[in-house]
Each structure stands twice: as structure tokens, then as C-alpha cells.
């Protein structure tokens, strides 16, 4: 079995070399998805004694956060480059067969400011359907929760999002020991949430 440092280095190198959002998503799933390399290493923690599990768990969580941060940074860079390329041409196309409109160049859709619900379509693409409904893949941030997946559908009439296929989730909590006199910052929970859909 490869060492954690070797696996982490290999994944970080692959993230740096990713040349498209689809390639980056494949790397994310391979590393952090429910059957990803880091997720499988997390499963092995159950067979360790308490002290070894604690040390290995901390190391895995650190690597997992480094990978997630690298993916987010690369995703921002690739999305920006893709947007710039698309802005030089058309960014919408309507099908006369089903009247769906594919729209490119959407980095974020603010659904609710008060509830902090934002949609981040993968590749900046959505498909608008009849009645202002739309479909997309990517990330949903809803308050303290973030979900990654595909096949999402926003129903405008009911103002709801159908999430039939999401593979990972992250949430935030207030930090436990804020500096005296400072407001507690929100930090990502270190626990891996897996088997979200079986």
C-alpha cells in the first residue's frame, strides 16, 4: 500500500495537471468520493488501536482538507478560464426540438441571501427548461452545508432543488476555541461523510 504522503502528492500533482473541469471532477471523485482513495484509507481506521487511529485520522483529515482546498482553487481557475473562452463567443443555445436552453458562463446563482443558498454549476453551465426550471451539475452551498454531485434540478414553481445524485458533503461549525474578544469563525468539520447514497 502506498504511503499517505505519496498518495497525497500524486493527487495534488494530478489536480495541478488537470486541464478541464471534467478531469478535475474525476480526480475529486477518485480521491474524495465515497469509494475514493482517501475515503478507503479512512475506512481502514476502524481496524486500528485507539492511539494509531487518532494519529492516522488526523493525518488523513489534514490531507483531505489540503486536497479539497487544491481542488477548489483549481476549479476557480479552470472555471474562470472557461468563462473567458466562452465570453469570446456565444454563451447560450436554444434547441427547437425541446425548447431547452443551454447557458454557459454562470459562475454562481444566488438562490437565497438570507439562507445563504448558492449554486455553483460545474463548468458554469445550466440547462434552462420550461417554466424557468433548470438542471445543472456541481456544488450547492446551503448555509453551513455544501453538497457535490450531478443531475440537480431546480423547480422554480416550488422553489426547491431535487438532488438525486450527490456523492459528498461538507459542513461547517463554529470553532471551539476562538481568540478572546473575537467572534468564532466557521471551520469545516473534519469527519468524512461517506455512503451518502447507496
Question: Would you kindly provide a written description of the structure presented here, covering whatever features stand out?
Answer:
Strands 1, 2, 3, 4, 5, 6, 7, 8, 9 and 10 form a ten-stranded antiparallel β-sheet that branches. The chain is about 35% helix and about 25% strand. The protein has four helices and ten strands. The longest helix is centred in the middle third of the chain and has 38 residues. The protein is globular, with a radius of gyration of 19 Å. The two termini are about 25 Å apart. By secondary structure, it is α+β, with helices and mostly antiparallel strands. The protein has two domains: about 80 residues; about 100 residues, no CATH class. Helix 1 packs parallel to helix 4. The model has no long low-confidence stretch (mean pLDDT about 85).
Q: Could you write a compact summary of the structure shown?
A:
Helices cover 36% and strands 27% of the residues. Strands 1, 2, 3, 4, 5, 6, 7, 8, 9 and 10 form a ten-stranded antiparallel beta sheet that branches.
Amino acid at each position: 500500500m502506498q504511503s499517505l504522503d505519496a498518495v497525497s502528492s500524486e493527487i495534488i500533482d494530478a489536480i495541478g495537471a488537470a486541464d478541464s473541469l471534467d478531469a478535475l471532477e474525476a480526480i475529486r471523485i477518485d480521491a474524495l468520493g465515497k469509494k475514493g482513495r482517501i475515503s478507503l484509507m479512512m475506512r481502514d481506521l476502524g481496524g486500528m488501536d485507539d492511539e494509531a487511529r487518532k494519529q492516522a485520522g488526523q493525518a488523513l483529515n489534514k490531507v483531505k482538507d489540503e486536497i479539497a482546498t487544491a481542488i477548489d482553487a483549481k476549479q476557480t481557475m479552470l472555471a474562470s478560464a472557461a468563462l473567458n473562452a466562452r465570453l469570446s463567443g456565444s454563451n447560450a443555445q436554444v434547441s427547437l426540438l425541446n425548447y431547452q436552453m443551454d447557458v454557459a458562463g454562470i459562475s454562481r446563482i444566488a438562490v437565497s441571501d438570507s439562507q445563504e443558498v448558492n449554486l455553483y454549476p460545474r463548468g458554469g453551465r445550466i440547462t434552462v427548461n420550461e417554466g424557468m426550471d433548470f438542471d445543472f451539475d456541481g456544488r450547492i452551498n446551503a448555509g453551513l452545508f455544501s453538497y457535490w454531485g450531478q443531475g440537480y434540478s431546480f423547480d422554480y414553481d416550488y422553489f426547491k432543488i431535487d438532488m438525486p445524485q450527490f456523492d459528498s458533503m461538507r459542513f461547517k461549525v463554529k470553532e471551539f476555541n476562538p481568540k478572546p474578544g473575537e467572534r468564532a469563525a466557521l471551520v469545516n468539520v473534519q469527519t468524512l461523510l461517506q455512503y451518502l447514497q447507496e
